[in-house]
Automatic annotation (TrEMBL):
CDD domains, per the entry: HNHc
UniProt name for this protein: 5-methylcytosine-specific restriction enzyme A
Domain of life where this protein originates: Bacteria
InterPro entries in the record: HNH, HNH_nuc
HNH domain ranges (all copies): 162-217
Single annotated GO MF: nucleic acid binding
Pfam families in the cross-refs: HNH
Organism name: Desulfosporosinus hippei DSM 8344
Amino acid sequence: MRNPPWARDELILALDLYFRNNLTQMDKTNDEVIKLSKILNSLHIHSSIPDETLFRNPNGVTMKLANFMRFDPKSHGSGLARGGKLEEQIWNEFANRPDYLRKVAQSIIDNGSIRESEILDDEEEGFSEGTVLFRKHKVIERNRKIVNEVKSKALAEGNLRCVVCKFDFFKVYGEVGYGYIECHHTVPVSEYTSNMKTKAKDLALVCSNCHRMLHRRRPWLTIDSLQNLISQDEH
């Protein structure tokens, strides 16, 4: 069996290395290539790795860097022609934003210990910054202690409703909706670190529909931008 195709997270890390180093020195003996190979092997992204000896080894990393060259105007079309469509997507999304790419790559490295079994969600596949940061985002949103703290405060103040559309589950559904609301973490995923602490002020109370809409567009919509979309529709 073949090893799994490169995931979005892995390609983001490879593209970051592509821009940070002199490609003429990027071979399987290069220290940065070897370092990236080890990082890729430490990420908990793939559920099955049939051949661990070949999985994201330094030679494979070098070939992936060469794949990116075919999109680079500076390389004049050189590089390895064979590659997946996802490489071009990653290039188009991040090549003109090297500073953001660097932040996202570092954040993926910092949060790479989150395992696949910890969280599953049908939105994960379309998340532009990759699986690792999406899972980190969802783990934060499901942190029972801080979420309950935010919800309890709003409930005590009689303000447990969606900050975007003002939907109140209790008013609409009665007793079955009492105390129910979802939380959205508003800190950009590029700023996630391994030891970051979730603060109450970074969580926004939202209804299920608005939460989905906040996650639907890439990059994610902000609370204000979604409120503006609703206001425009009303007028």
